[in-house]
Amino acid sequence: MAYASITDLTVYLGIDESTADDGLLTQLLARAQAAIDTYTRRTFEATADATRWHTLDSVWGRQLQLDGDCCAITSITNGDGAIVDAGEYHTLPRNRTPYYAVELWPDSATTWDADSSGQIAVAGRWAYSATAPADVQHACVRMAAWMYRQKDNTGNDAPIIAGDVTILPTRIPSDVQLMLAPYRRALT
pTM of the predicted model, to two decimals? Predict the structure, then answer.
């Protein structure tokens, strides 16, 4: 699944959706999405479950620290093979994604147990959210449009100026960077 569609991009560019550039537009949307993920150090949507293994080193008291953004948990399996019932834990933060930890309720008799290699399996959707937020979707369209407009550049990276309007910037648009700044994960 993409953060934005070809229709979103063609409307933004003001071009006919049945253009011969559909293949290029699809590639540019994928490249823009990859650039956004690289810049922010996150993925903004997940379409399928995946399992990640966490060690007992990830456990802080009753909290299991997750190793990345998680927007939905399908199941947690302790290392001894026991499924941890969803009623035994809650996510942190509690009312929004992405989750960074799972915490056992204070009255739960469940404990975090790892297998012989120290692993606890968490299955779920590993992304910031199930679908990309609207501003990330727009940043993807804006970035792909910027890339599309570069296709007719003759290889010179200097901006093309018509009157007092810059047609082709020489770097990633600053508005895209501003849209993505709140989502950018710090290096650890």
Answer: 0.81
